[in-house]
Amino acid sequence: MAFIMKQLQDTSHLFGSNAPFIEELYENYLADPASVSDTWRDYFDKLQAQAGASVRDVAHGPVIAAFEQMAKRGPVRTVVTEGGEDKLQVAVLQLINAYRFLGNRWANLDPLKRTERPQIAELEPSYYGFTEADLSRSFNVGSFHGFSTERATLREILEAVRQTYCGSIGSEYMYISDIAQKRWIQSRLESVRGTPKFSVEMKRRILERTTAAETLERYLHTKYVGQKRFSLEGGESAIVAMDELIRVAGSLGVAETVIGMAHRGRLNVLVNTLGKSPSMLFSEFEGKAASDLSAGDVKYHMGFSSDVMTPGGPMHLTLAFNPSHLEIINPVVAGSVYARQVRRKDANKTQVLPVLIHGDAAVAGQGVNQEMLNFSQTRGYGTGGTVHLVINNQIGFTTSDPRDYRSSLYCTDIFKMVEAPIFHVNGDDPEAVAFVTALALEFRQEFKKDVVVDIVCYRKLGHNEQDEPMVTQPLMYRKVQQHPGTRKLYADRLVAEGTLAADEPEKMIAEYREHLDRGELLYNPVLSGHNRQYSVDWTPFLKQPYTDEADTTVPVQEIKRLSERLTTLPEGFSLHSRVKKIIDDRAAMGRGELPIDWGMGENLAYASLLAQGYAVRISGEDVGRGTFFHRHAALHDQKRERWDEGTYKPLEHIQDGQGGFQCYDSVLSEEAVLAFEYGYSTAEPNELLIWEAQFGDFVNGAQVVIDQFISSGEAKWGRLSGLVMMLPHGYEGQGPEHSSCRPERFMNMAAENNWQVCVPTTPAQIFHLLRRQMIRKLRKPLIIVTPKSLLRHKEAISSMEELANGRFQTVIPEVENLDPKKVKRVVLCQGKIYYELLAHRRDNKITDTALVRIEQLYPFPADEFAKAINQFPNAKEVVWCQEEPRNQGAWYWLASRQHLVNVLGTKRKLLLVSRPASASPAVGYYAKHNQQQKAILEHAFGPIQETTPQSPNL
């Protein structure tokens, strides 16, 4: 960089206002060295060589940065360059680039025409010193693609850039750093001046789609008066966009499209894009739709799937189920798409397409979009780009003042963080909408990155059909009431240009309404009976009764073989000394020389499943190594010379033909990443999917995913998921944000066997629990409250025999040889506190108190619990002992549901030992933590001052 700066400073003709001209020449040189003169090519070749660039365009960034800096500080000099061009030639190139950068500000985007065109000096010829006399002067057009020759008059150039960048399409892409992407967009836009030239057949199709969108909304408005449907009226061009998207995607080889959207226009997309029968929709409006779901959901949250024919062959369409949390569906769709791409071995990411439809206020306002965009190009989460459609009704929620619901110029500015091109388009120009949608899709397929179509439209009705927008938006809605509608405007245009007869548009409406009266679609795209090669059969998992039983045994010899594979490294692979000790110890465990610890038990569970053909995916912020240095599923060569080399994952090398293994350290996100994994799990039942929180407390950041999807997805939508959440938990004096995964929240939402909540305390338990999750023909989410310090506890170990021939024990009864008749008290506990209670009992030689571990909190194992308790007929006191405060943890749930009381009956007293009720999960003072922990242990075995009523009303 220093050399380039000196070289440029020594070369006076590169100063100031000439910089854009030089930049233009340099970009042309990078694209094609032969496109510039010999003098310039020789100069740029020297720059490349002397800057040490090994690839032609590596030095582009520093050179351009140098140009920009020089342009800022002057002095300004202009020179006569080759071919006799003077300073006006440089100005022409500046003017063209100004329209590429800023032309969108003058574009005709708003159907309501509510704002005046802003004053932008850079778009005026006079800004560059041009006069009226210069309009007829001929200039080189540089890289502009809209001319058949290299030269044009200034008048022609001005007309071309304004047609291209200031018409119904406003483009933003010049911030993209990749030259090839910018040139690609320029060639597509500028070659047609931003104005598509469609055939008569295509124009008729566009009007048919617009008519279908409007007619359905008006039909529902009159047939089901006052019912919520979140109308698409004013944004009908979104249906045109979806139609063109699917048509073009099919021709480009897309076989599956997964769509995510909130409620605005959803019913219209269901019917007019996915081909849902209107009769089915009418039944939902009338409350006649039969469902065996325990809860169900409102009609504008429901998903749907179908197979449709495209120019490239059949395509499977899926509209994901969605709660009212708007943008939260986006990473769910990404996860579902990723799973389908893995299943298809679609390494190029071209066969499965994610499409997300946003609202203008939500896309700017909800942070999950930033999280999702942040992982959109990463290895473990990137889907090859998403096509984003924004139904931009310019108002957000009814009561919003546009000054209050975002700080950026456009609602789509967030997408600039990943350099996604953004195409703003006037929704009243359906042809322009179709054109940029196809352009966006082609860009995505070519460059494998996100792209945005911002359909600027309006909303004819209120936020819902019971809302009156005139109350808070009188100015806007006077404009809306005067608007004839997108369909009418486009129909009139086609009639005026002679494409349609005057009566054809009304005939289209009448014909569509006739079919709606019969509950049918006029244009039904759905293929019946189509058998998809990559479909997943969920039938074995449907309507299965819950069971805790599964044969999770693995022969000893197989465990030894798997251990050997887990601890065999490539020749010359250099481990960190601490990791080498762990791997060496694991090898000894596999030989039976050491007991198995937690990390080895967990890895053996994965290895055994992979050997049986199941796939495994682990995701989270520190899952390769493990936050607490226990997993080491990804090993790192300490002698590697490049950051992207020298990583070895033993679980990828278990045996030939094994299941696929993925292990990715995620971006620093809980909400979007957990939503991604949930989406993945709903598309793939044959893969063990694990998301691990760095600390269990951090799951707070993903609460909406837990509430709206994981806990209730089956009850609302019938969507099964076998997702596993690992939440490190344990009170070790690390303060309020590093102690509790808030198990009380999961317990409060536990009902209808919606998920499992387990607290395993031994390596054998985690081994069998993870294996059980896949081997049972049952797919339920699994919440595992995992340990931290317990990972290396000297007594939290298991024998190879326990792994080989054991099972997951929902309750672990007393394991020491106490005299059952002398036991007066049974302490029920879970997790780390068990080992502390055990140590306290031994240190104080207590023999009249038994310890029983409840390893599965939900579904509560009443029978196993009863067996463990009834071993001690003389125990009149049963204590629930937990580390969490009284108002947290599992206590309130267990007591209020009377799970414990129902087994204990009236002859045993139920007591509680816990921390005092607290607004915070844990204390921040280490001394106070120790004081509380000591009190818990003492009270568990000694006098308990406070008793708990045996009542569900606590």
TrEMBL record:
InterPro entries: 2-oxogl_dehyd_N, 2oxoglutarate_DH_E1, DH_E1, KGD_C_sf, ODO-1/KGD_C, THDP-binding, Transketolase-like_Pyr-bd
GO molecular function term, any single one: thiamine pyrophosphate binding
Positions of the Transketolase-like pyrimidine-binding domain: 596-793
Cofactor dependence: thiamine diphosphate
One Pfam family matching this protein: Transket_pyr
EC nos: 1.2.4.2
Swiss-Prot/TrEMBL keywords: Glycolysis, Oxidoreductase, Thiamine pyrophosphate
Origin superkingdom: Bacteria
Record's catalysed reaction(s): N(6)-[(R)-lipoyl]-L-lysyl-[protein] + 2-oxoglutarate + H(+) = N(6)-[(R)-S(8)-succinyldihydrolipoyl]-L-lysyl-[protein] + CO2
GO BP annotation list: glycolytic process; tricarboxylic acid cycle
Top EC class for this record: oxidoreductase
A single cellular component GO annotation: cytosol
Similarity-based family: Belongs to the alpha-ketoglutarate dehydrogenase family.
Known function: E1 component of the 2-oxoglutarate dehydrogenase (OGDH) complex which catalyzes the decarboxylation of 2-oxoglutarate, the first step in the conversion of 2-oxoglutarate to succinyl-CoA and CO(2).
NCBIfam families noted in UniProt: 2oxo_dh_E1, PRK09404.1, PRK12270.1
Subunit structure: Homodimer. Part of the 2-oxoglutarate dehydrogenase (OGDH) complex composed of E1 (2-oxoglutarate dehydrogenase), E2 (dihydrolipoamide succinyltransferase) and E3 (dihydrolipoamide dehydrogenase); the complex contains multiple copies of the three enzymatic components (E1, E2 and E3).
Protein name: 2-oxoglutarate dehydrogenase E1 component
Species of provenance: Parazoarcus communis SWub3 = DSM 12120
Gene: sucA
